[in-house]
Amino acid sequence: MANPLLSVVIPVFNEEGLISTLVQRTTDAVQTITEDYEIICVDDGSRDQTLAKLLAARASNPRLKVLVLSRNFGHQAAYTAGLHAAKGQYVAMMDGDLQDPPELLARMYESLQQDQYDIAYGHRTDRAEGWVRQTLIKSFHSVFRNFSQLEEADNVGNFSMLNQRALQAFLSLNEKNRYLPGLRSFIGFRQVPVPYARQARHDGTVPKMSYKRLFALALDAVFSFSSLPIKICLYTGLFGMIICLAGGIWALISKLTGVAPFGWSSLELSIYFVGCIQLLFLGILGEYVSRIYRENQNRPLYFIQTYFNG
């Protein structure tokens, strides 16, 4: 059987309430592009009826394929599993919570066809989320843009479409600590943004990506694509040396001029300050060491339990 024209990879985790709408909207959107397609839903270890509903939807649409992971390996790993399974000449990535509108896939495909680009990615011009979440995400993207030197990774997510040339380059990156928007920007090729407003979840509930998971993903991005943490250590250390030098000069002058020396409170605050700086540096170094250790372990990103694709 010939490879399809378009593959759409969608990771899902405990999304039983969205599966019917997700599959229907995605199918309708893809069929405006071509009848030669496949939709690969990656069940990332769901514990509800997500898998059952996916299989029920597949019964009426054999172009829907279901890749079941052996447990929850995380969003980025689930995407990677789906990308390795995709056979399309063009491969799209889309979140399974419908915050990324599948109707935008047609515009991405047109961009790759008319302008001869290799990658079309969704650029978020607005977000239908709470102000706290928006503020944190915008702050991260601002820091990441300024220190990673990856311009295409600014205010973007996983929502994108790649041709086979870009996809093969993308899949050749095998690191375990994965931030897919950063990796997609890193490989280069001709990339074009497709602006859109990121929508709220279709079911009205809070996003499945908790603040803890968002923070972990942000750390992976910063430590993988930026030297900012090490620079913080360097500049803080230099600043501390200047403060210590100034303090030493002041202590010497105070002794010579008879000015009363600093009391115990100043001494204790100085000790606590230096101790906190040391702990901060140890934490930053620990993050690097843990990531180096994980890379050297070279464990697989995921294990496939079943692939319903026949």
TrEMBL record:
CDD domains: DPM1_like_bac (cd04187). One of its GO terms (molecular function) is glycosyltransferase activity. Residues 7-168 form the Glycosyltransferase 2-like domain. It holds the Pfam family Glycos_transf_2. The keyword Transferase applies. Keywords: Cell membrane, Glycosyltransferase, Lipopolysaccharide biosynthesis, Membrane, Transferase, Transmembrane, Transmembrane helix. It comes from the Bacteria. GO terms for biological process: lipopolysaccharide biosynthetic process. The keyword Transmembrane applies. The chain crosses the membrane at residues 232-253, 269-289. One of its GO terms (cellular component) is plasma membrane. PANTHER family: UNDECAPRENYL-PHOSPHATE 4-DEOXY-4-FORMAMIDO-L-ARABINOSE TRANSFERASE (PTHR48090:SF3), UNDECAPRENYL-PHOSPHATE 4-DEOXY-4-FORMAMIDO-L-ARABINOSE TRANSFERASE-RELATED (PTHR48090). This is Glycosyltransferase.
